[in-house]
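Problem 12. The chain below contains 412 residues. Write out its predicted structure in token notation.
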Amino acid sequence: MLERISRWAEGYLGLKISGYGEERFFNLLKSGDLDYWALRRKKDGCYFYMGLKDFYQIRPLLRKAHVSMRIASRAGMPFFLHRNRKRKAFAVAVVSFFVLLYVMSLFIWNISFEGNWHYSRETLLDYLETQNVRYGMMKSGISCDELEEGIRSAFPEVTWVSARVSGTRLLVKIKENEVLSAVPEDRSEPCQVIARTSGTITRIIVRQGKAAVAPGDEVNEGQQLIEGQLSILNDGGEVVRTAYVHADGDVYARTQYHYEETFSQYHTVTAKTGERRHGAGVMAGPYRFRFLMPEFGETSWNYVTDLIQIRLFGDFYLPFYVEKITGEGFVMYERPYRQEEKEEEARKLQEYYQKNLMEKGVQIIENNVKIQEDGALWKVEGSVIGEEQIGTERYITEFEETEETKETDERN
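Solution.
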């Protein structure tokens, strides 16, 4: 692309040579490092293109190779300007066009991010807005070093940032920490482990504290599972003091969840008509112009729009967009659910609840679902049996000390 623009700007000629020394002539061009392209051999000679700069150097080579030459065509800016040298309005328009391009090249018309997985594009754009970095601002107003430092400070999971301006584009490359950091919890405060939901204990692992339940026990929400207070006994088996610790452990239980959802016997169905509509549009800043034939009849339409930003080359983006609009006709009507559709809805609901529980760490053991008819309604009922870690910490805020405990502490 750049090579074509360069050739057009410098101007080039379409040439034809003929004679017995054609092959020798092209060998002389190569040895003289003279550029030519699009060589074609025809019955009446060889046709090729050559830039003006190299054309002025080939006369000695023509005599040496004993070939004749004829100019078949002229192309490029020098010839274009020469043909239109008397058209002042056109000259003004051309100059104005290049002045406008130069002015546009001073601004940012595209902001791109690479490497962002945890933080969405919208989140990063909102942050740039708070730093007065936005579409349409002058490139001279951007400090890439300050922008990199600001992103690292504002987003703890970002470990590396590179920002650079290329053409009319701001490109921000980031690298995120694969393991999201978390604020470490205080593990010294006395606490106990309680049940966050009801269930049947299947296994318990105690790292600190004392187990208050055993496998097979039925527990309710809020019930203590691991004690955070330990009794210290003397040789006579009497309690001399109570020690408070940060209870820690894993308590797994068999839990059960129920869900249901009710549906009407009739539902709305969308059917495609096969009709299609096409349109186009242009957008410049906040202004948008669309060209689409008006709608007729009772057909509804779904439209899909492809928005493409115009760029001249490389990273030279312009604040103009082209839209390609495609419409697909459809009609809507109501009809009763078929049996297979009810089963499909039940399956989707089952998968939805199962996925939510698995994301919370529940290991699914059993999952049952059934469809119940109820006159004008029907509903899906399901139950899920799983195993999960039900322990959660609750801090101990009150400490009880006996007089005997105080005396023992004083002696120690």
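Discussion. Confidence is low (pLDDT under 50) at residues 400-412. Students who got a different answer should revisit the alignment rule from Section 12.3.
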